[in-house]
Every structure is written in structure tokens, then in C-alpha cells.
């Protein structure tokens, strides 16, 4: 293939989209398996008692580290996007990122203090190289089919959530029920599978993502007639200042809390040193951003302002949505009745079996469709993909077998128990893992993504602002559910037995909110940003996500403080009100943003 045209990619299709999209689908699926699998365990591992193999941290310290970790994960995409654009290309960036993440998960599985921190650092840089460049490849494949982009990103996002679902389900189960090492280790194994599958199938992308050379740079510049706006030395210095200050703050914030103030880079700024540092970094960055916008051509400038507006809304979305692995997981672990008996035990076991097996069947069917189109040309990649699915099926069946046995509905001989590495039990018990509730988000996305994709492609497709307004409204509705469910918990209570239905409703409404905002937001970046800036601007988008992620950690840090003084319900009502305000603001700004988008829908 000498050229990358949309028509060339659409010659071999799966479900109406290029086969290459589904190579990315499965690569991203295994990466998200590893990322969400580990992430679902992190807060629980840090706060678990020493006797349970954890570090016995306070919730405040665990949330501080978690917030900085996920914030750095998305902030590092700036670095990965730059190197891909200028030096190594999208494909090598994906491979480098996947390798670093494989090593990171392996390091965490060792479970020493040094290896856990080293693993988190490797995962931060690995995600930075991997994440923005996967979406950049999707964007390039659809550059001449903008009307198909929303549907493509939604299907791609379905792959993201298929990986998240199985990662949380299986890594979470192994971590909680068997041992933290098994949960962390399994995440690394499937990241390795994802890397191999991508590398061996890469020719399917034609020239997309190759290492930049003089010819490709000249071609990109010829296609882009937009006004150039190089960075001056002063602007580069401002970027360096704000970036270094923000990075130091992200590291120092948890370090100063965990060490009790013994480690504090900004102590010379006084007791509010952390706040002064991050506010200074944000002010410098915002001033620079405003100045840069004034230097572009009118249409480009206005489109970039529109992207920045949606990025601003995205900060609030992720700060509230990402309570899932944080305060909502704590709520599931300590305040929710997860022990089931009688008919409810049977209902859960059957339902859990269905939500495990049916998605596996669906994804396996997609895998078979991909095989039909690509096996002749990429046999080894497909074989590796098959092996990974065989392992997933084996672990899923083992998990269900263990659950039915533990609940007393399946009898197994001692020799079978020994062969399956299942501990013998004398008292039947069905206890839902705290991480299990997080799988509902991914399950609902797998179920609802095709419906939303069709909605976005229909004549009833809402405007960008209305999509954000609907999404934030649904986010508010979900938080209102858990706030209402927690209304009976007294201030200062450390445990409770709230019904599981409230968490189920939270994840249903939050899933619909995510489908309105997250994949659609990525699509608007690709539509509104000039081609030469696409990977970098995806990095800027993930900067907004990083701020939201750290915001989620900061919310989580205060859950005990607020719950002790006002009650746990008060905490969730606060998040409900914030969501409603942002939703109304998005809708009110519709006329202004529509004009700035210049006809882009």
C-alpha cells in the first residue's frame, strides 16, 4: 500500500469497519485489561491490613497516591505524543509503551516496597507512550470518513471496556480471593500478549504510524496549509516551568502526606506550599495557552477554543466519574452488604455466570470475524490472540467453578480441589468481591455502545454541548442514587450494610454518561484539530483528563473527613450538585460553541 486512503482500509471490513480497527480493538483491549485490572486492586491493596498482605495505609494517603498515579498516567501522554509525532512514529511508541507496562506489572507482582513504586513509574511512562498513539492511528484510518468517526471511536471504546471488564473481573477476583501477586501478575501477562499481537499485525495499517522521515514530514506539511506558530524560547521556558512544577507537585503531594511532612519539596513556600506551586503552574500554562490561540488563523483558533472548552468540562466529568476505583470501591468494601444467602446467592451466581460467559462469547465472535479477514496474512498474530483467549476462558471457568463450590452448590473431591488449586471450605458462603461492582461499568458499555453508536449516526444526533449536558446530568443522577442509599449511614460510621442496588444504579447511569462524553470527546479532537497537531492535541486532551484524575483522588482524600463530620451521604450529594451545575453550563454555552466549531458536528 503506497497511500493511506479510507477506501483502501474499507476493502477488508468487519462489522462495516476496517479490519485494522479491530486489530487496534484487541490490542487496546489487553492494555485496558492490564491497566484496569491493576487499578481496581490498588486502593484495596494499600488500605488492606498487614495480615491480609496489604500496606495498611489510611484512605487519605491511598487516595493521594492513587490520584497522582492516574494523573501522571494521563499527563505522560504529552511526552508520548511528542516522541511519536517527531521521532519514533505511532507504532514504535505503542510497542515501547506496551513493553514498559509489561515490565511494570511484573515489578508490582513482586510486592516489595521498591518494586511497587518502580512498577508504578514504569506504568506511568508506558501508558504515556501507548495511549495517545492508539487513538491517533484510529484518527488516521478515518481521515476521509469523518461521518464514520463517532461510530468507530464508540466501537474502539467497546474494546477498551471489554478489556476493562475482564481485567477488573479476573485480576480483581484473583487479587481479593487468592493473593495480590496473582492479580498484579495476570495484568502483565495480557499486556505482553497485546504487544505481540499488535507488532505482528502492523502491516495492516499501511504507512500509518511509521517512523517520520523527510518525505513523510514534507507530505504532511504540504497537506496542511494552516499558519505555522513555532514556540519561542520564552514560551518553551514557560512550558518547562509549568510542566516541572506540576510534575513535582504530583509527586510531592502524596509523598508529603505519606511521610507525615518529612518529605516536602515545597516546604520553603510555607504551610500552603503545595497549593501555591500548582496554582502557579496552572496560571502560567493558561496565560501561554491564551497567547498561543491569538497566533493561529481565525478558524483554527476558534476550533481550538472549542476543543479547550470540552477539555474543561472533561476535567469535572473524570473527577467525579473516577470515584469508581476510589470512594465507590471503599463504599462497596465497607458500607455495602455483599454477603448473599438463599435465593439471592443463586441469582448472583447465575447472573455472574451470564455476564462472564456472554461477553466472552460476543468478543470471541468478533475475533472469529477478524480471523476470516486476516488469518491468511497475519497467522502468527491470530494464533497468539487465540492463545490469550483460551487462557481467559480457562481462568473464567475456574473462577465460576470456585464460586459455585464455595457457595455450596457444587461438590468437588479433594483431588479435584487440589488439582484446581481451590481451598477446601466447610461453611457455604457467597460474598461478592468489592471490585465486582466496577465491572458493571464495562458490562453496560459492552451492551449499550452499539445503541449509542447508532444514535450518533442518526438524524437525531445531538449537538456536542447537548451530549455533554446529557452526560453530566446522568452523572448527577448516578451520584444522587448512592447519596440516597447512604442517607441512613450515621456520621463517623466505619461500616454499614447498604443494599447493593444503589451501586448497580450508579454504574448504569455513569456508564450512559461516559458514552455521551468520553468517546465523543475524543472524536471531536480528531475532527477539530489540524492533522500535524493531532497526536500532541490528544496529549493536551489527556492533560485535562490528568487534572480530572488527580481531582478524583483529592475528592477521595476527603471522604473520611466529610463523612465523619456530615455523614457519607453529604459527600455524594456534593458531587451530585457539581455535576448538575456543569451540565447546565454546557447546554447554556451551545450557541457560542456551535459558532466556534464552524459546521463540525
Automatic annotation (TrEMBL):
Pfam families cross-referenced by the UniProt entry: PTR2
Molecular function GO labels: peptide transmembrane transporter activity
> Which locations, inside or outside the cell, does it occupy?
Cell membrane; Membrane
State the InterPro entries in the record. Dipep/tripep_permease (IPR005279), MFS_trans_sf (IPR036259), MFS_Transporters (IPR050171), POT_fam (IPR000109), PTR2_symporter_CS (IPR018456)
What membrane topology does the annotation report for this chain? Multi-pass membrane protein
For biological process, the GO terms are:
oligopeptide transport
Signal sequence coordinates: none
Q: Which GO terms describe its cellular component?
A: plasma membrane
Record's Gene3D superfamilies?
MFS general substrate transporter like domains
| Broad class of where this protein is predominantly found | membrane
TM ranges: 62-83, 90-108, 114-130, 151-175, 181-200, 234-252, 272-291, 303-321, 341-370, 377-400, 434-456, 468-489, 501-522, 534-555, 570-593
UniProt KW keywords: Cell membrane, Membrane, Peptide transport, Protein transport, Transmembrane, Transmembrane helix, Transport
Q: Where are the annotated coiled coils located? A: none
Q: Family assignment? A: Belongs to the major facilitator superfamily. Proton-dependent oligopeptide transporter (POT/PTR) (TC 2.A.17) family.
What name does the UniProt record give this protein?
Answer: Proton-dependent oligopeptide transporter, POT family
Q: What is the lineage of its organism?
A: Bacteria, Pseudomonadati, Bacteroidota, Flavobacteriia, Flavobacteriales
